[in-house]
Records
---
Amino acid sequence: MFRFISSRFFQSIPVLLIVITATFFLVRAAPGGPFSAEKSVPPEVVKALEAQYRLDQSIWQQYISYLVDLSRGELGPSFRYPGRTVNELIAAGLPVTAELAFYALLVAIFFGVSAGVYAGLKPNTIHDYLPMSVAMIGICMPSFLIGPLLVLLFGIELEWLPVSGWGSTPGDKILPTLTLGLGYAAFIARLSRGGIIEVMTQDYIRTAKAKGLPSRVIVLKHALRGGLIPVVAFLGPAFAGLLSGSFVVETIFQIPGLGRFYVQAAFNRDYTMILGTTVFFAALIVLFNLLSDIIAVWLNPKLRQQYRSNK
Amino acid sequence: MSEPTRYSKDYLGHSLLATDKGTSLWTDGWGRLKNNTLAIVSLGVLCCFCFVALFTPIIAPYGYEEQNLLLGAVPPSLDHWLGTDIFGRDMLTRIMYGSRISLAVGFLASAVAVFIGVLWGSIAGYFGGRTDIFMMRLVDILYALPFMIFIVLLMVVFGRSMLLLFLAIGAVEWLTMARIVRGQVLALKQQEFIEAAISLGLSHWVVIYRHLIPNILTPVIVYTTLTIPSVMLLEAFLSFLGLGIQPPESSWGLLISYGVETMEEYPWLIFFPGLFLSITLFALNFLGDGLRDALDPRASKD
């Protein structure tokens, strides 16, 4: 197990390096310098600015010093918000986005797994078709459509919930969480349905039934563990989706999180901010892929055995 | 899927005795697809949408930029079936023009993705060995990248052109296709007809495109149908954020983002573009699932 974890860990280092390098040169290849718009600025000031942002060095020097800074966890100053570093901006936005993504993931897992298991236990009956049709709607309706429709229904028509903000009025976290989580709930429902159907035909489930175990124990203790492996494998990629989903959800609900910062940075051409957040996102995604791989191996006795015998 | 019933019929109830002639994969597949009502309805809907999109300039009830500021935003009526926006522009017309871009991006970007994926996967699978390891390792690495973020980055750096949108989305969506194709090619390569082709002295390229690719068309077609909706979603997602299609062009995603701004007063402005986008995505997904069941019954288990 340790060996598996360490080898997967070392595999992810080149991935990160590629992301950093590609992003760095892409951003530098962008037409026009960051200060070219401000024509009225005297040349000395531009020079000073360029020196401050190290733009006067050659691109390779810039790249090397960026890597050096990065290894110390420094993402550099922001182009658009003078006096603020990218680190500070990320630190301000991250807790909000992390909380949003966490709740959304909880919603997705809770609704997804319960609907999927419910459907998978009675495949090809009305108990299967009904939740699965709802899930299909969830998959086909993008979050930027679900969100406004939820706002229209619960925020404006029924006036039950606030329509924007995060943590300022009670209940304002519900709609963003649902908007981000429901699409993933639908995916997870499909995955766990397939997993449960597959597992329920296995011999060990038949043994458990023959032993006379109550069906509740069979499902919760024996079937879930095997049936949820595809779901766990999906969680890594889902996390990446949650991050990009937060772009939309935070824009719709005006939440001051990382996703909104990223979109604004993209509009403002705040190159250091884009570079910094991309690297940060990439590191997060690689980390979560790693975690979901490890959990998948840990859950699956066959894979665990395989890695043990490889030693 | 239905279970095998009587010995004289195959598992879908076609009489085995009735067919004296051999049937091709495609007639077989069509026969199975025909029984899938949802897939056929979806196919019909998609054909309708494509037809409308193609002939929009002729059949659209109003002009694309035709404003009527005195009228303003009105709800659906006999004159304007889907209402008008705040400039008095006919929503049906705008949705029709939007569908041209949404569908074009969906099909063209998928074509880019399919082209790269099939080429990459078949080369990796055919040559095997180090080439294969290197190429597929690269796919693994790319899989781990935060792609949505990368597309946003590309759109920012190189400006928001439509051509770039096609390429960026296509460049992202080919990975799964490459994996599928490689797996198929690996299996096919073992068969005698490929061996025969190679021993006849055909060049690698001819073996790949004359003998390998035609034999993996089924999974490619099935997966392409499932790629189109995810591509359309990506485009709508980017346009919604303002990073995709730029005005005066318009797509369903862009119409939705306009609709959101005024949905409190004029809910039909978000409802109808959203409805058409959802219906299209539904239909493509159902058609893809149906095609998979019909053409590739073994793969439909998972």
---
Amino acid sequence: MRKIGLLAIMIAVVTLVSADDRLTGDDILRKVDENFGADSKISESEMKIKGERVTRTVKLKSWTEGTVKSFTEYLAPAREKGTKMLKLDDQLWIYTPQTDRIIRISGHMLRQSVMGSDLSYEDLMDDARYSEMYEAEITREDTLDGRACWVLILEAKVENVAYHSREVWVDQERFIPLKENRFAKSGKLLKYTEIKSVSRIDGRWYPERMLFKDDLKGGQGTEFVINKVSFDMDIPGHVFSKASLRK
Amino acid sequence: MIRFLLKGILRDRSRSLFPMLVVIGGVMLTVVLYSWMMGFEKDIVRANASFRSGHLIVMSRAYAEDSDQMPNDLACLGVADLLTELKHQYPDVFWSPRIRFAGLIDVPDSSGETAAQGPILGLGVDLLSAKTIEPEVLNLSQALVAGRLPSSPGEMLITEEMAGRLHIDLGQKVTIITTSMYGSLTTFNLIVSGTIRFGIAAMDRGLVFADINDISSGLDMNDAAGEIVGFFNDGRYRPTEADQISKTFNSNPESQPDRFEPVMMTLMKHSGLEATLKMYRYVSGSLVTIFVAAMSIVLWNAGLLGSIRRYGEFGIRLAIGETQGHLYRFLIAESALIGLIGTVVGTILGLLSSWYLQEVGIDISSVMKNASIVMSDVLRAQITWTSYFIGFIPGLAATLLGSMISGLGIYRRQTSQLTKEFEA
């Protein structure tokens, strides 16, 4: 009887220990989403755009609610100061003080670079959770900067995604996508991203410094630095309105 | 002898009418074909020089590699200094910076919301400085349909077709959405001062013109330009001189051997016209040759018919003692005279037809509706000095060749058989 009890305990322990090993690609995606997800977020950041001939720094402040509402105001350089962007669901508007016009960005314009960076408007629109857009499969394990990672292949399961597939290195401990290759439907590499540093903010791991590199563009990529971020703040509803673009 | 031949040709029309009609028709067609080809060539060269390459064009090496894509992020910097240098080194050429860009025109409604949007191909050129020749080079005054050319900063020209399609009124403020030199999306407002039509379908769909200062400001291209175009002061493209200037400029030891150093290209090299025109001239030369050969066969046939008809005449002439050589030379001289008269008449008719095509042209706009090549909707001929004598080559050559071949039959006549032939 004691032997049977011991065996049962051993089976239970083995089952528990291997539970983490049995995480599927989709499970990992959900955990990544859980780590990143927040009801609301206010951040101040800057983009160091390292072009072929010059490096420019663009500063911005963003207000985000869920995955469907986002408002961004550009603070620097002088030429871009006062430019604002509003995203509501799948629609994006931009306001520039030079024209005093609110213009909807749609169609091929969404593929345009944001302020000359390696990010496109489509990238900015791409706020939905990974697990809602992709099916994931673990292909192998790897080590990146000393951190154990799963390498996932993500295949789009919905239409209208910016990238048909992605190869993602997910930190096994912090569930952060440390590195990503984004591909077109043809299999051509379009974009490469890498999270250079991560910090613990309000109980979650969040990237501080990221590198984006558009493979179809010259230059050394865009370094995206989040200087300040706070989660689950109350953001007044009027922020996410077209009227706030002109304010 | 010439007077004797002339009398024979005029009095015995059955001897000369058919060959002469063939020569007149052939020469006329040759002159028209040649003049039309010259007109077509001139049209393409002019359109490419005016709207695309100038007679000479300076770009950064990197920009030149993909100039069709208008990569303004690879544009020349320090344009003011570069212009000064070019003007100093090559005073016989008018130099002017240009910025080409693609984007969207956004037309607001009364509340400022987007009412209509359409794609544009924009050209920022020097429209406002005192010494500019750009409006003349681009033929803007002639192309103006309504309104006026920009006379102050912040104004632009759009095509008549675009104005109609997007319901844009003169004096209306529109927004241009495009990409800045640094790759960011940029927007700026301009006022439509006039509408234009070039008669070139590819351009009449979505071309807009504005002063280069407005465009460089909008595209964040301070002291930068995608292209600097040069036109010879007399307006004529001189290929040898253009080649020499570009070679001298590109061998400048001071230039930095990097992707962004300025390089100069000639109209022929940049627009790809060199190969196109080479092929075009080869084809047109072949056409004229084939035409001469075909006409020779027709005239040979006419000569044969004439020989059969004049079988008896030649027999009698041989019988009364005229040598075969003399008779053959007589026939050749007669043909030369027919060829000459036919050529002169054919050339006159050809020149008249070419003049009509040059002045009026043939409207092919319905065929060119969706064309994307820079080519006029009206096909026009161009009379050159060559047009006056090009017809003499087929006119005389074909007649002589035809007579020389058919006349060989004279040498087959045996004088010993002549009596028998007459008896028969």
